[in-house]
Amino acid sequence: MRHVHGRARRAGAALAAVLTWAGLLAGCSAGGSGPLGLGGRPGGTSAPRDAIRVSPDDGSTAVPQNQRLRVRVPDGRLEKVKVVKEQDAQATLVAGHLSTDGLTWAPDDDRLALAARYTVDAVALDSDGRRSARHASFTTYVPGKRFIAYATPENRSLVGTGEIVSLAFSTDIVNKAAVERAVRVTARPAVEIRPHWFGKNRLDFRPEKYWKPGTKVTVDLGLRDVEAAKGVYGLQSKSFSFTIGRSQTSLVDAAAHTMQVRRDGRLLATVPITAGAPANPTYNGKMVVMEMLEETRMNSQTVGFGGEYDIPDVPHAMRLTDSGTFLHGNYWDPTAPGVANVSHGCVGLRDVQGGSSDTPAGWFFDRSLVGDVVEIVNSQDKTVDPGNGFGGWNLTWQAWKAGSAVK
């Protein structure tokens, strides 16, 4: 048997649709003296061919996104309107509504999809009782430039109570308000969640206070066909969700060389640490664990220093900032934690080469989640910039809300 290609199947489906509509209009002759006319009476005449008007025009191409789709009749009423959108090899029915007088049909969403083909089938009855039908189709503009958002955290992940929803866009965003409106972040149980822009290509979301354990957060990206800059349109229409785990916060005291780890408000342990040396102090402020690495290489040249260090196997590394602040195991200077600050800005915990769960660093790593909060106090450096990693918790709620583009 010969393989039937997708194009042939689509053509067959289209033909079936046409025949269905033809059947709806033609009816059957049963005992009449002549053919059944479109007016529903033997020998009747049909309404004029152009009685149903469709905009955009039949056969139009490269229709812009802001052109309005409308089906109209000058009198009588529209009996049925069916609009199908074909995009990315998927066909979907377009929801719409009739005006109260029955003369106009419009889609519920007035924004046309880009790179799509629309087909319109309509049936109307004019003021003389004559029925007419119209079939039309058009295609919309295919943009040459697209953008996407790289989202954090991962879908279906379990994260700490300090997690921030962060969208990093592949292009600079000019129409910030349009992009912001196209993203929806909700929580169960419900809590107010607000956006904040960092620069031209990053949009973060968080509640006023840390998330409550057990909260489920859903992110809806309605970016498809949203114009971020002139001629640059979004590609994504997707949703993802994540769940908030138990509450764990850690307080690093750089002057006392200690870290207090609290779980659900209860002190689990006080761990000895080493922070940044006087020449390279550690940032103060609230930071969030961004990623967790069992082992990683740390090279001073990648973070703006000279050739001071290049350690190929740093164990139990947890990133706290984009600029390179980590909380990690330290096996090369085991006497420093609890005694002196000797690092280049990171927070070090006692560890062994290759890492071990029996060390302070291994113990903390095994009990941590991406999204946990680490707050550093009593260091000689400034407070971390809110846009450096997920430092947005250092902003007041009012300052955070002021970073929205939708006023």
TrEMBL record:
What PROSITE patterns does the record point to? LD_TPASE (PS52029), PROKAR_LIPOPROTEIN (PS51257)
SUPFAM superfamilies linked to this entry: L,D-transpeptidase catalytic domain-like
Q: What is this protein called?
A: L,D-TPase catalytic domain-containing protein
GO CC annotations, alphabetized: extracellular region
InterPro entries cross-referenced by the UniProt entry: Big_10, LD-transpeptidase, LD_TPept_cat_dom, Transpep_catalytic_dom
CDD domains in the record: YkuD_like (cd16913)
Q: Which species?
A: Streptomyces griseofuscus
Q: Which domain of life is it from?
A: Bacteria
> Which residue numbers delimit the L,D-TPase catalytic domain?
248-377
What Pfam families has UniProt attached to this entry? Big_10, YkuD
Any one Gene Ontology MF annotation carried by this entry is: acyltransferase activity
Question: Which key words tag this protein in UniProt?
Answer: Acyltransferase, Cell membrane, Cell shape, Cell wall biogenesis/degradation, Lipoprotein, Membrane, Palmitate, Peptidoglycan synthesis, Signal, Transferase
- Could you name the active-site residues? H328, C346
Pathway terms, separated by semicolons: Cell wall biogenesis; peptidoglycan biosynthesis; Glycan biosynthesis
Q: Name one GO biological process term.
A: peptidoglycan-protein cross-linking
